[in-house]
Structures are given as structure tokens and as C-alpha cells.
Amino acid sequence: MSAQNHTQKYLQRVDPEWYRSRLFGLMCWMVIAFIFLGGRLSYMQIIKGEYYHRISKNNCIRRERIKPFRGLIYDRNGHLLVENRPSFNLQMIEKDAEPLDQTVKKISAFLELEPEDIMTKLEKGGSGGYEPVLIQEDIDRNTMAAVSAHRFELPGISIETRARRHYRHPSLASHLLGYLGELSPGEIRAAKFWGGLKGRAYVGRFGVEKAFEDYLAGEPGGRIVQVNAGGQVVDVLDRVPPEPGHNIYLTIDYKLQQMAETLLGESVGAVIAMAPDSGEILAMASSPGFNQNHFVDGMSPKEWQSLSGNPEQPMMNKALQGEYPPASTYKIVTAMAALEEALVNINEEVYCPGHYQYGNRLYHCWKEVGHGRLNVVQALSQSCDVFFYHMGKRLNVDTLAKYAHGCGLGSPTGIHLNGEADGLIPTSEWKLERYGSPWQGGETLSIAIGQGYNLVTPLQMAVLIAAIANGGTRYQPTILKTIETVEGKQVKKGRPAISGRLPAGKKTLETIRKGLWRVVNARHGTAYWHVRDKSIEISGKTGTAQIVSRKKGEERSEEVEDQYKPHAWFIGYAPSDNPEIAVSVLVEHGEHGSSGAGPIAGKLMRSYLEKNTKES
């Protein structure tokens, strides 16, 4: 019985129908599986194919931009002023840094940053996941070594070596050289710079750095790299090297620039030294200055406020942006106009009793007891106000304005620096449009001695005195000597550019030069006791620009607050017979031009000429 049952069961197992049913069920399950796999593959390759292709590419092959070295800046003698130094920047690629929370926590310990701060930087970076985001700039070598030692525990973290701008003499020529500023997200998105540059980058924002940005910046390169799952580069597949920026040689003399700033000291003002025969700027100082490295290294809001909110305006280049009444330096223009219009000659004398009556108002001379009888040469030498009141009455404001404009006042000089101010040379039409009232004759008297509405920049006055020195040619001031490639090939050369001639003939200029020589070298000259130098002959003109009107004798009060003290001017050139240097000095609230500004100009010119004599 038992054997029979076993036989029946065996026969059932080998029954073909039983096998068919089992096989059919298995095939159904296989078909369902293949349909599912086919559908999934279709979804991934057709519907999501582009997405996964991009993911795969970013995980394997990436394009990286290589930033160029910025060009260097030298003085006229090859002294290096601005260079680049290596900087180690830690950056993160968010998609490679998974798990992100753990990676952020680990890297924060190395950088002494809160994880929340790092997450904020990632959010602001707006990279889309596969663009590197700067986490910390210019890390020290100890931090770099620690991060490198744990690189396998820090996916998505890399250290990039970049060239960082460095100003070798912090604060020296800060307004002239300028500084770099970080690109804003808007500028990057607008592809304004370098074809839509990603990541943190700097461009020139002021001074030479901005004026010659196109030459200094260079052209970026790039490379195609293969990375592993952690975002670490395992191979460089292709590379296009960047083109470094060009080097710029300026016209300034480093040592003269240094001396100009030393002489200014803590005074607020500006000093400009210029070559009279070419317009080359030999020195341009503005005080107070600022440390340009802070703009690259980064500054706190408090530090920025200390600069932007400082009443002495350290961010202003006072040499070309400061506008001041020219005071008695303007008497050069008044004398020029009177001589050229034949309203006075070199022999005519005007009596100065210490005041001048015009209508019902008494206009005082700076010398209360008066100068007595003076001709135009003596009047320039002693800066007699009364003499020039007479000249103002003979002339008129519009004629004075014509000569002032002819001397380059009231309009930018054209120097290759941004932000140059116009100044102001008033006319009768200007006053009518501005104030709705006609010009008054008494106002011309103030204009004739450089007060009233007159405003000029120290650079404009440097151009004027340089033109007086060279015989009447107004050169456009220039700061560029040459631009060269890193291999030393000359790309561009600065050349003298004539912007015009003074509206004066040879005889008039000779007369004015005689007066300017006597300012410094004649015993009654206003600069005799403070500027005269036995080793060289200096010519020039002093000026004391009143800030507010004062009553007679008030200027001698020692109780006058500093902000109400007059500005001090001196413009001059040396040597008198064959000028090699022209100087314009403005000291805010320096009181008297002879003592406040004159010594600075005298020492600067003597130093320059002594140096040139030794070198020759």
C-alpha cells in the first residue's frame, strides 16, 4: 500500500500539465519584472536623462576657472609699490560635502567658526551645488596643514591658492594707487566682468587700480578636471593658462612721494609735484590717507564707519577732488588779465593806504597800515589786496572768468583718475541762473583776490604754476610712464599732452615771473622768511583762503576754532631760471600760506633738486 501511494505521487509530479502551470506563473512574474525595469529605465533615460547626465558629469568632469595674476605697479625708477602675495582660501562644494551637516560641523572646528555661519555663507554663495563657495579667506598655514591632514574626512572641502593684492607701503600714495573692491552679486550676474565670473573676485575701485583695470586685470584661464565622489581632483584633463595682467610704471618718485606725505604729517590737505616740461606727476599726496590692504583683507563695519564718517574725509583725494577758494594765488590770473587787456602796465603804481573804498563799503588789505605805492610786480610780491581791488574794478567778472578758464581753472584737468572735480569760476550769467539776482560790482573785488565764489583744486593750481614756469604751455597732467607685459615688452607709453596755452604773451609772463621771484627772494616778499633757500632760487605765490568773514583784527585772535581758520596755499617752481619741478600745496586751516604751506613746498623742491644733482 505504501509503495502504491509513492508511485501515484511520482506520476503526478511528472505530469506535463503541472509543469505548464508552474512555468506559466513564473513567466508572468518575469514579464512583470521586465515591464517594471523597462519603465524605470525609460523614466531615467528619457524623462530624467538630462538631469542624471548633468549629475554624472558634475560628479566626474568639471570645468574650473583659473584667475590671472594682477599686474604689478612700480614708480618711475622701478621701485615696486603694489604686488601680489600667495593666499590660501578654504572653499566648499555643497553637493560633494554630503552628509552636509556632518562636514560643516567638522570644518567649523578647524576654522573656529560656528556651523550656522558656514551655512549662511553657503546660502549666500548661491552656487547651485557644484560651484565652490568661499568659506574662509587667507587661512594661516597651521589651519591649512590641519585641513589637509583630514582631507578624507572632509568631502567637498578644498584649499585654493590665489594671488592676493598687497600694498608694500600701507597708506603711501593711497589715493593715487587706489584699492580693490569685491564684485557685487549683481555685477557677477550681469556678466559685467570676465564673462560672468563665479565666486569671489576683486576689481579696481579707485585710483590707478580703477583707471588701468583693463591692463592690470589680465585674462582668466581654465582647466577641465576629473574628480572623485568626494569632489577631490584626481586628474587634470585639459588646461588653458591665464594671461597675467600688465605691469604699470607710474611717473611718481617713491622717495619724493614719501617726503611729501611726511611733510604733510597729520595736517589735512594735499601736495602735488609736477614736471613743468611734460605734465608728469612726480608726487601726489592727500592727507589723511588710509591703508589699502584693509580693503583686500576685509574690515569690520566699525572700521568702515571710522573711514566714511570721518569729518577729515580720508577717502577723498583732496589733490583733485577737494575744492577750495584759491585766495591770493588767484592774483596771478588777475594780473594776467589786467596786463593783457592793457588796463595796467609794468610801470604804473597804485597807492595802498590799507583799505579801498567801494560804494559805502570799505575793503581792507591784509596789511592794515598799507603797502604804499606799488607796481604790478611789487603787488604780486607783497600780495597787496588793494592793488588787485583796483584791477578788479577795471576788469569785470566775465573778463576775469575768461582768463581763469584760459588758465585751466573751473574744469577738470583730464588726469587719468576718477572723480576729478570741476571747481567753480563764476560769471554774471552763472549768478543770475543760480541765485536769480544780478552780479554786483563789489563781488568782483572779492573775485579779483581769489575769494568769493571762486573754487579750484590743488591739481588745477599745479597745472597753472607749471605753465607759468615753462613759458605758457598747459600740459595735461599724467601719472603713466609705461605699461609693459610680464616679459618686459612695452604695451603703452605715456606721452606729454598739451591741453592749451595760457592766455598771455611773453611780456606778460615775464612780468608775472618777476613778481613770483620776488615773493620768495625779495625782503618784503610774503614767502621770504619761510621759503627762501640760499642754495636754490624758488619762485611762487602764497595764499590765505578765508573760510568765514571776520571783523577787522579777528584773524589775530588765538581763540578762533580750528575749523574757522583759513586754508594755507603755496604754489611755486624751482629753479627760477630753469624750472625742473612745480609744486602746489594746500593745508586746510593752515592759516597763512607763507608759514603753513610754503615750508612744505620749499623743502620738497630742495630735496628733489638735490637728489637730481647727486644722480647727475
Describe the structure.
With 616 residues, this protein is of the alpha+beta class. The chain has three domains: 46 residues; 189 residues, Penicillin-binding protein 2a (Domain 2), CATH 3.90.1310.10; 345 residues, 3-Layer(aba) Sandwich (Beta-lactamase). Helix content is 39%, strand content 21%. Strands 2, 3, 4, 5, 10, 18 and 19 form a seven-stranded mixed β-sheet that branches. The chain is elongated, with a radius of gyration of 38 Å. The protein starts with a helix and ends with a helix.
Give the structure's gist in a few sentences.
The protein has 616 residues and is of the alpha+beta class. The protein has 23 helices and 23 strands. It is elongated and about 160 Å long.
Average pLDDT, rounded to a whole number, is 87
At the first level of CATH, what is the class of the largest domain? Alpha Beta
Low-confidence stretches: 192-199, 550-557
Percentage of residues in strands: 15-25%
- The oligomerization state is single chain
**How many strand segments?**
23
Number of domains: 3
Radius of gyration: 38 Å
Helix % is 25-40%
User: Would you tell me the structural class of the helices and strands?
Assistant: alpha+beta
Q: Globular, elongated, flat, extended or rod-shaped: what is the shape? A: elongated
CATH superfamily of the largest domain: DD-peptidase/beta-lactamase superfamily
